[in-house]
Amino acid sequence: METIRNWLLPLLLAAGQGALLWPGAGLDGAPGGPALFGVLGALALETAALGRRRTAPLRALAGTLGAVVLGGLAWPDGYLGFGSLVALYSVAVRCPVPVTVRAVAAVVGVEWVLAAVQEGPRVALLSDMAITLGVYLLCAGLGEARRQRLAGRLSAARRLAGAEHARRLAGDHERRRLTRELHDVSAHHLTSVVVTVDAAHRLQDSRPDLAAEALSFAERTGTETLTALQRLVGLLRDTDRPDHRPMSGRIEELVAGFGRLGRPVTARLPDDLAGPSAEAIHGIVREALTNALRYAPGAAARVLVRRADGLLELTVENAPPRAAAPGAGGLGAGRGLAGMRERAAAAGGELTAGPTREGGWRVRATLPDGAGTPPSEQGWRRDVLREQRLADPALALAAMILPVSFALALTEEWSAAARRATLPALLVVCGLLVLHALPLLWRRRAPWAVLGAVLATAWLGPVVVAAWPVPSQVAEFLVAGALVEALAVYAVAGYGRGPGRTWPAPLAATPGVACAVTATAWADGSVAGEPTGPGGAVLLAFTLSVLLGPVFAAVWGCGLFVRRRRLRALAYDDFAFASSMWQADRAAEAERQRLAATLRDAVLEHTRALVAAARRGDLAEVADTARAALAAMREMLRGLGDSADGGAGPAGRLAPSPTVADLDALCAALRSGGRDVRLRGLPEAARELPPSVQVSVYRIVEAALGAGDPGPARVTLRRRRGTLRITVTGVRLAVAGPVAERLRVQVAAGEGRILCEPTGTLRVSLPAGVVPAPAQEVSPSPYA
Which residues form a coiled coil (predicted)? Predict the structure, then answer.
């Protein structure tokens, strides 16, 4: 399909140009033998160059320019050379604006030099050069507008692909986040209780006062644990109070709490820590000090945070342990260091940890300094003015140049004396035409103002004709400015606020243009060389209104049609994005609810028993319930870790990617949901396919079936001569919109072909023997 699209237009252009070479085709002065061979060579070069316009647009443009020079020199009156227009359009669609500007300059320069060689210093040369410049500017502007539309569609496809990727991973991400938070809660609170109570139990004979302190600490910490767990999983939301204290103060309070456990801890940190990096520092410090409490009881610790070159450097270091901590090795869940690294990576930093020369332990983290610099959204906003920095100026310049070139072309038949006599008036009229089209530069930002300015400048012509004796043959050139009114009406329909309120635009433009032309004729005193009176002026205004009314109405309708298509595509993208984000929220909420139930059964009951035992003063029971809560927490964290790794198990291996063999399970899951989905050709198609091809096939079918169609669907896989053919029927929502865009990009990444039929059928061909690029939702933008 892509090959047909590449070669169909070049072959049609070659066929049309070749028909002119046929004897009796209608052109006078058929070329002789050498000229004929030159034209045929130019056609062959142009066709070959245009065939590569999608993959190598600049080379295609260079080839078509060579064909223009060759064909123009071989047969100046017969070779058309439309290939350069097509090639320039392809350059504008696929290349940045600076490249397009240079390409326009090169094409116009070649055309001007060729015209000067062919025509010599004649009046027609100036008009031909103006027409050439206007046509190529218009072509480049249309290509730039197309490039922006494609870039917008690709951006929407990438945005939606990211949302769907987040939807698929939302449950895993939420599970990992909750695992990290739960580990911090268990390590900081429950481990502290166990260590404190064990120390008080060992020293109760020599230090009986420690028992009361340990019981008070266990009651207070148990209550904090309950509150933290309830806030984490969304339980008892009414008791959730957001902590608005500065992060520096919270870190200092955390360090002071460890100091109250009987260990010397010093801290030095800035007073204005804020943002995600400060949150990560709080979690890392809590984990590091808890590890020091567990494995180096009684050892001094130091916390240092300093700024350097826009970064926050955190150091948590403890001295060697004075004595081994009894039973400390069984208190942890084995995720402390990994959790600290995950926190640092989530904030955009990195973390290292290891022993010191003295036998202690040091944790170092480098994080971006985000204090006082809230994330800016400016980089994500679309710059509409820069998007159209070539399209709108090119259209405005073309609207200025084409009427002027039309006027210059008509003066070619005049005598030299007539041209000299009318030169001042001709320059004034050309200036009026340029001024008339100038407001089009702002047609997107203020379409109604542009229409008003265009209609106002149209009346400058009658004023000039009435105030200054402009010859009739020159005054007639002002009619060419009616093209500007049509473009202004289109701008109001396409970009004006409220499409239902743009209907006055054609109603205002029709009598405005008719009356302006009539006023010009009345001021000149003649129409087409015939004198006119009041009756003739009224008849002329009525006739022009009748003729121009349908034209402006059609232009207005085209603007509304294009606008509605664009808005419909944007609305569909927004709906699909919102739907994906909603499903991601639901997946995360499901994980939270599942964790809430697990916590309620496994951990919260033990923690409540711990608080009750502390209030009763039973030190032994406090120790037992704290260890039971830690064991339950560790078991739950192990289960969450296995789930987060996709059931990989203790080894931490990721689950294998889905393959063609998993399509049967996918269709079965859809059938269990009430949708009729059938799969055919699976065993034959899946035989000896490369793994990457199998992943691509699964993702393509998954995206097509997941577009949201409620009706029955059929999936057929066939393998013929090294090509795997995928046919999916009954997926109307997958053959258009963002789903189709993502499928096209994904199939193109696998060097395949795709055909989306309006009837709801999707046909994909993938090379079965060649390992394609990794399956992905979108590819890098070709417009960057």
Answer: none
